């Protein structure tokens, strides 16, 4: 239950006031512009009440402190826990100022305002536009708090009203009584308005105020009345009112039809002409308001006569007032609806109007859920926490039924569908068994959840096979693309011996593929196998004789890795021997080349030494003819070109940059700033959508999985069967064209509440 704007609970009493104080303020108080002197008895009672209410309010914070600490320890998330602890600290710091503001607001309430007799009740359902944060639950909680106090303390409150009415020049009603539950509750809300509290903390504060202050108003009122009596204000009022009740004449018999007083007839007269006067009367017409228990009894009778189902899945919103009218006429009674009961009836009708228009639900399901209107109305009338308690079993059952039916579609012979039959059974049991014991909703909820769990497990098995198959295809495609990237980087534009190319293509490409599938490209095994491929290419291009020693050290390890690769890919043993023999011949040639180059370099060194010696000898007087004889030229071995190979970091980068293009990609350009393209990154797995294909084909589907390797989105129906798959680009375009539309998330009852309040605010805004 949200509570962001504390001033949304009720309008402040201090607005539009008519000052009752004169130029002289009572001693110890500051003057206020335009104020008048209150009569001494009113001042005494005001100060007494203020002191008592402040004492009770101070006790609120000790209770809130304990509750918030316990709630914070059990908080579900870090954000909620931090918010509760912040609220705990803030209330500890601000409690004194809050009590002072509360006292000031109470005092300000004695500047009693004039109100018209037809002024609207700010707590009624018609005034839901006061709730600025589109949340009804706080309004209902406060409404319930005030209504309970008015009911429980009606007699002492009436006496205070009458006594104030004799002392003040302004007419005092329940609505403008400065000591009424409305004014006291409003003063506390006004005092706590500026506190930036977490939602749960604010609700807890309000609940503790109800427990410590509002439930103790009887004692406060009693002491205020006693003080009035001491001051000589209507000291015999209680006895006079008791005597008046005893002397009240009995109700007159019902007059014949057509009489001017027919509409105000008895509750069940048997005269023939009384029939026309029976039914639902306007409040204030003289007919007594119907007691809650009587209203529940009439609603129960109406509930038992509801049809088992509506023909052809017809959706029908019940007109409860009209049904009550017919019911009262039938039983020959007349009564009015209490204001709160009337408001609840209107509110429940608005909620079910939203439910029956919700596009998430198929028409036959709406028809079934619509039959719950009367039972839930009975719940709301009997249990005022229905609107303020999110975990109420009746609300949970309705939400669970709607959630299970989100993806359900009415096909031929849908009456035989297991889910539809189960929904019908649940609704039928509510209608047949629910009177006033809400435990039936918990029982049915548990049974329905067991049914849904079995249904979902069957769907999940099929769905998992589909997702696993798609995921396997995606991983295979991704692995082949990444292996190809490694092979291209090592083999492109390089003259490799045929047997080395064969090793890379037949053995090591498959080895890399298996490693990528099993362990991924971030694993040590993948890095080792990529390094093996690079070492193989380097081994046939290593510059000789400089790399001779390094190659001699590498070959035993390389041979072991190649043998492991042969076994891993199950290469034919004959092929393996042939390919190993081919490699052996290459390495024999490489080492022979290295030997020749070393010998040639040795001869060159020897020849250069001789040349230097001959040059030195030519300067001697006697030359050795043998030594001065010309030497044969040294044969020069060709110098191998140096082949540059990519480093491991470059190979890893090539793999990371692989972009997997789906087979059937839409070529339409979609900029990254496109809102529908961005929306594809925010879609939550499990979300429901409405998919349109052509003019006629339309069905519901759920996002089952996002295959990240190829950016593919898999959609299934409620049975787990695949109905569509999109690439990211295809999905963005489908969203843009309205071919795929997301369905509303969230619980049905909560969405209905939000919609009702928004609708009321809009309609009242247009009226103004």
Report on this model:
The chain has 768 residues and is mainly α. A hairpin with a 3-residue loop joins β3 and β4 (697-707). It has 25 helices and 7 strands. α16 packs parallel to α18 (524-539). The strands form 2 sheets. It has a 5-stranded antiparallel beta sheet. A two-stranded parallel ribbon has the order 1-2. The protein has helices at residues 40-73, 78-108, 137-152, 154-167, 181-192, 199-212, 217-230, 237-247, 292-304, 320-330, 339-355, 363-370, 373-382, 393-404, 418-433, 439-491, 498-519, 524-539, 548-568, 573-617, 625-628, 648-656, 675-679, 728-737, 748-767; strands at residues 279-281, 334-336, 688-693, 697-707, 712-716, 722-727, 740-742.
Key structural traits:
768 residues, five-stranded antiparallel β-sheet, 7 strands, disordered N terminus, disordered C terminus
